[in-house]
Amino acid sequence: MGTGRFRVPADVRDWAVAVGVAALLVSTGLSGGRPMADSGLPGYALLAAGGLALAAGRRAPLLVLAVTGLCAVGHQAAGFDVLAVAYLVAVYGAVRAGHRAVTVAVSLATLLASHLTALLVQDEPVREAFGRGGGVLEIAWLIAAFAAGEAVRQAERRAEEAERTREETARRRADEERLRIARELHDSLTHQISVIKVQAEVAVHLARRLGKQVPEAMLAIQEAGREAGRELRATLEALRDDDTSPPRGLVDVPELVERSRTLGLDATLTIAGRRHDIPAAVDRTVYRIVQEALTNVARHADATTAAVRIDCLPDSLALRIDDDGKATPATAPLPGLGLLGMRERVTALGGRLRAEPRDGGGFTVQAELPVDRTS
């Protein structure tokens, strides 16, 4: 209990380890055989420097690995036969950071340098020098440090993957709950608005049948009821992207364009390039973007023509929808839920979306969706 409140900062932990290792190395050097008088002070300095360098291990693991390796060779050259604890800790940190190949190469170079130092600097036979410079025990310690770093790295990666999976699950459940609430609101509001619309139409019909003037307020209620019903039906169509209705995709875009023509919009469709395998998510997004763009043209743009172009590129799909409406950069409309929904879909797939009025008049929607050929 309360461990989070009294958690020690990472920098403090790093410095504590560095100072501890430096103290251990210096005390071991003092308790061992005394080196030559003229090389004693540099040797102690190298022992301390190797330990203190570990304080930067979290920020620069490879640099610390190189520094501690040089210090290990250096204090051996000064006559200190001390286990390179600082270098072992640096090996652990570098492997934990994911630098396995570099760590192996640096360790082999350090062992070789240690052998050569024992051979050239110390006055002893070749066999004893090689035994002192890199025996089985030192290699075993290196393997243990490497294995410990790799084990911790794998454990941390699994923990990160589990955390990411939990976040994705939570996000998916939140999306499902949002869709459920939206559908329930749609069903409830559709019923209530339908009642209002029917009552308004009955009142208007009776007033006209009796030869009375229909109040403007009643006509406004009737028209508002019709418009609200159309909006709710369009919302439900966008929300129903589940197993109860087959998913729409690129092959259904011509139907969208043809439907726009029946509403009086002179719409054209151009599909260029070879259609390769398209992931289901990208396929659905193409349909939804064209659907939303044409719906906005029909409702808000006061346009007579619309041009839809889809380019099937090797690694992406490019969409462009242009209309000749009255939108201009000076009178740019505020982005509605439709444009926000399109942007969310495109961003989730790692694509780009641009929706804005053109300088010469009219509105343009452009999207580029990456296609993973390996999926």
Describe this structure as you would to a colleague.
The protein is 63% helix and 10% strand. A hairpin with a 5-residue loop joins strand 4 (352-357) and strand 5 (363-370). The chain is of the alpha+beta class. It contains eleven helices and five strands.
Main structural class: alpha+beta
Give unreliable regions as ranges.
none
Residue share in helices?
55-70%
| End-to-end gap | 46 Å
The SSE order reads HHHHHHHHHEHEEHEE
Give the strand order, joined by hyphens, for the main sheet. 1-2-3-5-4
- Please state the overall shape, judged from the principal axes of the Cα atoms: elongated
Strand content is 5-15%
Count of distinct strands: 5
Q: Radius of gyration over alpha carbons?
A: 36 Å
User: Largest sheet at a glance?
Assistant: 5 strands, mixed
Mean pLDDT, to the nearest integer, reads 78
